[in-house]
Design a protein that fits this description.
- The complex is a heterodimer of chains A (310) and B (281).
- Chain A has 14 helices and no strands.
- Chain A is globular and about 75 Å long.
- Chain B is built from 15 helices and no strands.
- In chain B, helix 1 crosses helix 14 and helix 11 packs across helix 15.
- Chain B is globular.
- In chain B, 45% of the residues are buried.
- The chains are: A mainly alpha (310), B mainly alpha (281).
Chain lengths: 310, 281
């Protein structure tokens, strides 16, 4: 998985420049130039700018600003709302990731275990990934309706206690989490399916010779170790996406009731675009970026270790 | 070795497999079923104590015409197409030459540019929101198509995807094209593009889905209803109808989800390939 990157490290032996080479270098810069310029203006530059902005006290529209060092970060550390928001975000991620990953893995294994209806199941599980989350959030709002909703009607039939899931501070975050799981399962399923396809079939025969007869033994000895790198990637991408939860919060709960569903991107949105506190929102963005980068670095280091020994 | 007779345990396993997957598929599809079902019902049936899948009184015409007339739903959908087509056009004309230069040309700075692409892949787009908002405010571009489209004109994901694909194209093909007198620009569009059709389709499908569904950025830069993209339009709709007019609301949700579901069903393979191509390089 890293070979593409490694290939680049092999440089050509030094030679005298021919006219053709110089033309090639020129062509390369002309071809890559527009993309490179846009990348700096629209992505890398703003990412640097947001870090710089987080060290100022600028509010949107003000003619001047002052450098306040870590002032915004200190304010954040003393703000109980920030800690609640961070905790909510982590609880949401901790709820969505294991469910999405294990349901996705189970679905992938069961789909691969037989031949009939494979295409149908794959499409059904993947459809939520591609659908407009915002429109579906409104459907879930209807489904979560305390008296008319399909969810409470079903639970009432089963004799399970019901509540107004999205308005109850104890359950609202998990109700949003259910929507998050619903949307994330399909992605982890297709990634595991791709991982399963890459498992060499003769490994199963070798395991059978070694006496791994039951399905569980085959899974434990062959499938799971071979899925190692894929599962690290699935966990990381599911976690990063869960970390970015915003749409359902913005349209269903507005971070409420009583900040019970306020998550980091939603707080950033409110501070930056409702209260116009750009610098403080920039500091929140840096914290958000920090978490995403840590997750990615964890993934890369785990993946390289497992690929190495696997 | 598999025996020719079907063993009872195999039937048992098949029952188990279809039972579990069938229930799972039903749960995954339930919101879509509920959405379409409610969009066909009159208010009386929506609020009735017992739930039926198919309406007793067919009310689709009323709901859908209300959805399209109370709010400019057609305009939202048109905006969705305008924005996604403009974005993908820009992404393709910037990403393809860059990917070719990264995959097939020898130049100093190639490693650096590729490292920047990888770095770009790590940055979630929400990170750029505040600086870009300030930039567009300074340029007087807020609340315009340009504001929605410009941040997405560059796709580091697309550059990466196309580069990975171009790495597999044989160098002989490019050498032959050069002997035929084709310039580097011609090679990109007349040699590389045709070989990369599967990757381009995967790129297009993902770009379309991503930008059709994007809510965060349009919510920030768009105030005017006539510029609203489909997800933003649904929110305008829900707010205007105060969340009680479920029939037309679900009709609007169905209309906005339909293009994506159709695209997915038609291009399912490209979809799933595109998603997994980046994972299993």
């Amino acid at each position: 998985m890293v070979d593409a990157v490694v290939n680049l490290g092999v440089s050509a032996p030094p030679r005298r420049r021919r006219a053709g080479e110089r033309a090639e270098i020129l062509a390369a810069w002309v071809l890559a130039g527009p993309a490179l310029a846009l990348m700096w203006i629209m992505l890398l530059g703003p990412a640097v700018a947001v870090m710089v902005l987080s060290f100022t006290d600028w509010t949107f529209g003000m003619p001047s600003f002052a450098w306040i060092g870590f002032g915004n970060y200190l304010e954040m550390a003393e703000d109980p709302v920030f800690w609640k928001t961070l905790r909510n975000t982590l609880v949401y991620v901790a709820f969505v990731v294991p469910l999405a990953v294990f349901i996705g893995l189970g679905a992938a294994l069961l789909i691969e275990a037989g031949t009939s209806l494979r295409g149908f199941y794959r499409a059904a599980f993947f459809l939520p990934v591609t659908s407009t989350l915002l429109a579906m959030a409104l459907v879930f709002q209807f489904a979560f309706h305390p008296t008319l909703g399909a969810i409470n009607r079903t639970l009432a039939v089963l004799g399970i206690p019901t509540t107004d899931w999205l308005k109850n501070a104890d359950t609202a975050l998990f109700a949003l989490g259910v929507i998050g799981v619903w949307q994330a399962v399909g992605l982890s399923m297709v990634l595991f399916l791709a991982g399963l396809k890459a498992v060499p079939k003769d490994l199963y025969e070798a395991a059978a010779v070694d006496g791994a007869d039951s399905a569980w033994e085959r899974f434990r000895r062959v499938t799971w170790p071979m899925l190692g790198p894929a599962s690290v990637f699935v966990v990381a991408i599911t976690a990063i996406r869960a970390f970015q939860v915003f749409d359902t919060v913005a349209v269903l709960t507005d971070g409420g009731p009583n900040k019970a569903t306020s998550v980091i991107l939603y707080q950033m949105y409110q501070e930056g675009f409702s209260f116009l506190r750009s610098a403080y929102a920039a500091a929140l963005t840096v914290v958000f970026l920090g978490f995403v980068l840590v997750l990615t670095l964890l993934q890369v280091s785990l993946q390289e270790r497992r690929t190495h020994y696997g | 070795m598999r025996s020719t007779r079907i063993k009872p345990s195999e039937i048992g396993f098949a029952l188990f497999r279809h039972g579990v997957l069938g229930l799972g598929a039903l749960l995954m599809l339930a919101p879509f079923i509920l959405m379409v079902s409610v969009s066909l019902k009159p208010p009386g049936e929506i609020f009735a104590p017992e739930f039926t899948l198919w309406p007793q009184t067919f009310y689709a015409w009323e709901n859908y015409s209300a959805a399209f007339s109370k709010q400019p739903l057609a305009r939202f959908i048109l905006n969705g197409f305008i924005v996604t087509i403009a974005i993908f056009t820009f992404q393709l004309i910037t990403a393809l030459p860059c990917a070719y230069a990264l995959a097939k040309l020898n130049w100093r700075g190639r490693e650096t540019v590729f490292a920047l692409v990888l770095l770009g892949l790590l940055i979630p787009h929400q990170v750029t929101a505040i600086p870009l908002y300030i930039l567009f405010w300074k340029l007087g571009l807020l609340n315009s198509y340009a504001a929605i489209i410009l941040p997405s004109t560059i796709s580091v994901f697309g550059i990466f995807l196309m580069r990975q694909f171009f790495m597999t194209v044989p160098n002989d093909l490019i050498a032959a094209a050069r002997l035929d007198g084709l310039g580097e620009f011609g090679i990109v569009w007349r040699i590389m593009l045709p070989t990369a059709v599967p990757a381009v389709i995967a790129f297009w499908v993902l770009s379309f889905v991503w930008n059709w569904n994007e809510f965060f950025w349009p919510l920030i830069v768009v105030q005017s209803e006539h510029l609203a993209t489909p997800p933003l339009g649904v929110v305008f709709f829900a707010n205007a109808e105060a969340g009680t007019n479920y029939g037309p609301l679900m009709a609007a949700a169905t209309a906005i989800t339909a293009p994506l579901v159709l695209a997915f069903l038609l291009a399912q393979r490209w979809f799933i390939d595109g998603v997994t191509m980046t994972a299993v390089k």
